[in-house]
Each structure stands twice: as structure tokens, then as C-alpha cells.
Amino acid sequence: MKNCLPGMINACILCIYPYNISIWWVLEDRHRCTHFPPGPARLPLLGSLLTILRQSNLPALALAKLAKIYGDVMYAKMGMMEAVVFSSHDAAKEIINHEKVNDRVIAGFIADRNMHQNMGVIFSVGDLWQTLRRFTIRTLRDFGFGKTASMDIVINEELTKFLGYFNKKFNSSRTNQQQHRIMVISPELFDLSTTNVLWRLVTGKSYELGNTRLKHLLKLSHKYVSAATNGGDISFTFPLLCDWFPEWTGRNRQNKYIQKICQFLRETINEHRQIDSYAGDPQSFIDVFLAKIDENPKDPIFNDDQLIYTLLDLFQAGADTSSNTLAFALLFLTLNPDKQAKFHEELDAVLPTDGVITAEMKSKLPYCTATLFEVLRFSSLAPLSPNREAAEDFKLRNFIIKKGTSIVINLQAIHFDENVWKDPQVFRPERFLTKDGEVDKALAFHCDKAMTDLLVGFGGGRRVCVGQQLAETSILMYLTTFFRYFKIERLAADQEKLTPSLVPVLGLAYSPRPFEAKVIRRG
Ligand code: HEM
Question: Which parts pass through the membrane (predicted)?
Fold first, then answer.
């Protein structure tokens, strides 16, 4: 018995030791978080990840469910990442323009993408961000971006090409009748064309839709996105795993693709530099930036690397977002034939039988415009706005938000808040119309820095989306043109190989799953 004693004591210590550590950790954690917003229970190392993952595999949905329990300002620890999540319109309004949260989180795969430096517009901070953002908005505006008349010309030219391209696809698709085709609907139908609109405003050049260079750029960007989704979240929650297993987490692939995209952009810039008149007679955003570089070759902001990253930002933020939204619109209008019928009815009543659709016609197309707004709400394309970071400790409501905390604004939760939208799970463009059938300006007439309107798909505050006006105008013009000539119906269940689904694919933004539908040419 005497001999057994030390062994028993050791065994007891071994059992008690982890128990003690756990107790210590819980007390310590509780003490540290006393003044933080409420949130789900935390485990050592994992934080609340298991609780979050149990809710849904879409982070925005999971966080929205937890916000119903813990409140619209919620603290969530996810692995190594500490975040405060804002899930209602009121809460978002309190934070989106807060002077302490203008900066983005530059960590994980974002830091890799930006070469661990302050680069470009989307993921940059401080004076550099302000200078580049202001320059970008002003210069793009000078080239027609956001100016209705010039955007109209560019979009209409690209739409003509798009219709030619779509008609070819239509004619070569599966059919058993002259006017009907069975087609796969996905963002790919639109992405070359919508990228062309953006790229033309940025580079001054128009590409044919089959252009191999633009296709190559889009392909690289898609490969980058799919590599990022594998390791994207891990790179924030468990960054060390990306250091230890760069192949498995997708980090090596992401870095490879981003380098290739940057190389492509460098070549594009050099092509512009070879045209002597770029400074004297600038024809594009790139030309004006190059002229600015020439003014002071040692300028820390206006240099080749910053130009590359600004172009990368415009491309990544603008190329897929418009085509994904268009594919979502086709999905929602296929699943809601009564709404599609109303869309057609308004188009037929308002639009002349020939001639082009212009952005000016928006005011005559309230139902179509309301449909666009409902598509933006229902798709919530960027469900969690790119994270901001608290620059210092500060107080909000009665809570302390610590320096370095990620500020997550759950745009999807805001768009599906039952207290605001009454029946948020229903696709109903009419919600954006007044009793007189006009677009309800109180709900969605934005570019609103104070974020008073309830539709917040483009974020808000000082970091509100730079491309909002281009995106809204071009999406509306593409939608109205498409539905002027075509109708989409759901296939019978036994014919549907790819069923329409409301569950999105999560990349850097949401995209709809490809689905098969009957596309009918209108008489
Ligand atoms: C349906 C289309 C689009 C959606 C839903 C969308 C959404 C967003 C959102 C949510 C943000 C973050 C705003 C915030 O932090 O409060 C953002 C930022 C940004 N977007 Fe868009 N966007 C779209 C199209 C575009 C287009 C076409 C461009 C190209 C010009 C663009 C360029 C940018 C840029 C440069 C930023 C960074 C702004 C900054 O950090 O200062 N976006 N966008």
C-alpha cells in the first residue's frame, strides 16, 4: 500500500492538472471578456468555432442564428480570430461610419495577397487608402464610370456583343422545339461580358467576347478564388496551419495565381506605357495613373506596384460580382414565374420595340428596378462585408471593443431581419415599391454614406463600394435586355439534371449553383 501511494498521488495530479488548467482558462477568459459584448461559450484554442459550425456551413447564416440568441452586437472567438459581429441595421449604423473602424483586417490570405504591405484600395489603410480611393473614384468618373450617359454607351455596345454571344449559345443548346432551349444558367453566361464593361472603363480597350487574354485573366481569378476558399477561413482562424501546410491549405496555389494575375496586369500597364501619348492625351484610368507616376517617380503612393494592386482590386471586386448577381436574378425569376410575368409586362409597356435601353429609363421601370433591389437583398452577394479592424480600444453601447478586434458586419443578417422586412424569406420585389407603384426611396435609393437605407449590399460609410453605381446600372441594363428577348421557365422535375437551388456557393462572394432551365425566345 505504501509503495502504491506515490503512484496514486501522481495519477491524481495528472487527472487534476488538466482539470485545473481548464478551470483557470475559463476564469481567465471570463475575466478578460467581462466588458465584451455577449457571445457563445468559448473553448481553449477553438473558441466558439464548434458552436458556429453546428449552426450552418455558411458563416453568415451561422452567425445570424447565434445573433438571435446573443444579440445584434455579439462577440465571437473563432480559433485565433476575435470578432465582434453586427447583425442588425441599427447596430451596423452605429459602427459602419465609426472613426475607429475605417481600417480593414489585413491578415491571413489577404496579407499574402497584398505581399504583407499596404496596397491598393480594398485592403489598404490610412492615408494611402484615402488617397488611392479618392483618386480612383475621381479618375474613373472622368472616364464615364458613374456618369449615366457615358456608361450607357459602353454598356450598350457590350450588350450588343452579349446578345450575339448568347444567341449563338441558345442556337447550339439542347432542344426539341424551334423557340425553346434547355440551357445551363450560371454566372459564366455573363462574366466575360460584364468584365468587358468594367475593363473597358479601366483600360480604355474593348475586347471581343471570345478574347483569349480576358478569358485567361478570368480563369486565373476563378482558380485563385477556389484555392482561397479551401484555406481562406483557416488562414484567419488558424494561421499557423497555413505556415505549416501551405500545400494542403491552398496557400501555395493562391500565391501562385495571384502572382500570375499581377504579371498579367504588369504587362497591361507596360502596353499603355509604350503608347507615347498616354500622359498628354490619357485614354483610360491606367494612362492617368501612369502620368501621375511620371510626376514624381519616387512617390510612395503613385508607383507601379500600387497601380497593379488598384487594378487587381477593381478586377476582383467588379468582375464576378455583377455576373453572379445576374445569374441570381435569373434563378429567382425562374423560381417565381409570377414576378417574371410582371417584369415582362412592365418592359413591354414601357420599352419601344426597337432602340436601346438606357439607364435614364430606370425611372420608367419601377418594377424592374424594384426587382433588381430585391435580387440584391435576396442574394446578399457579399454576406459578410470585408472585415474592418478596430484601430484602438473603444466603447460602444456598454461594451468595450478591443484594438485589433475584427469588425464583421453581417449584411445577410440585416437583409433577412424579420423586424425590418416582415417576410424576408419571400422573394417579393413589391416590397421596394410605394402604394403608388414608385420605387420606395426610403428603402433603397442609396450611395448613402450614413447608411439610412435598409438595403446595404454595397456596405456603407467611408468604405462603401466604389462600383455601386456601375454595378446597379449595368445589372439593370443586362437584365432588362435579356428579358426583353427571352423568358425562362423551370423544367419538369424528370427533365431537370441540375435543379435550381437557393443554397449559394461560397467563394469570396456568394454565387448561385448552375441550374438547367427552359429558355424561350419571345415572339
Ligand atoms: C453587385 C455588385 C457588387 C457588390 C454586391 C459589391 C459589394 C461591396 C461591398 C459589400 C463592399 C465593402 C463595403 C464596406 O466595407 O462597407 C465593397 C467594396 C468595394 N467594391 Fe464593391 N460590390 C459590387 C461591385 C463592384 C464593382 C463593379 C466594383 C468595381 C469598380 C467594385 C469595387 C469595390 C471596391 C474598390 C471596394 C473597396 C472600397 C474601400 O475599401 O474603400 N465593387 N463592394
Answer: 7-27
